[in-house]
Amino acid sequence: MAQNNIDNIKDHVELFHQDEYQELFAAKKEFEGGHSPEEVTRIAEWTKTWEYREKNFSREALTVNPAKACQPLGAILAAVGFEGTLPFVHGSQGCVAYFRSHFTRHFKEPFSAVSSSMTEDAAVFGGQNNMIDGLANSYSLYKPKMIAVCTTCMAEVIGDDLQAFINNAKTAGSVPQEFPVPYAHTPSFVGSHITGYDNMIKGILTNLTKDQKQKPPTAKSTSFLALKPTLATCAKLSELRPWWA
User: Fold this and answer.
1) pTM exceeding 0.85
2) Helix 71-79 and helix 93-107: axis angle, to 10°?
3) Catalytic residue among 95, 153, 175, 181
């Protein structure tokens, strides 16, 4: 099955039609109690009919390509707006691969974001060890000024406590005690990228101002901070920049 000869490397379509793979698929289908080839063909043909088309269009509880994304995507977008900040997603590696790919296409340049790479064991026992190792590696490799932590569905479903994990990571020496590690809980099954953006902005500002005392505003000190979550293209951002000045 392994393609050890580099001159004989096949495309995946050809590869999966080889006898050894076909035997694997047949055994897998038998084990899973799969449908017969005739039934698969019948359903495939049915999906091409007007009956199937009308059944799809009649559904009201479905939105195709909704104009929103999940919370972590918005949280990462908020984090990279702060100079020298590295987005750190506490969750599975696949989610972060999607975020990096999306923003690389969005900004037309390579995009950095890291993950705690939670797997099955972390889903059962919690992802604290992943957080401790991940923060240590991120701090030593990327040398960021700040690491902003958000979550995915996996970490939220099992109830990982980000504040406790970050404190324990600092105690373990993953990052210095004074190093800023703001966080936001951003479950993908609630809200949208707008919610995640807001949660991360709140988390970052709370972290950066936690030791400061609030001063009463004066006529000279009053300022205005405009934070606008957007997934607009770079060209649109250039057009909008004068409005934010």
Assistant:
1) no
2) 60
3) 153
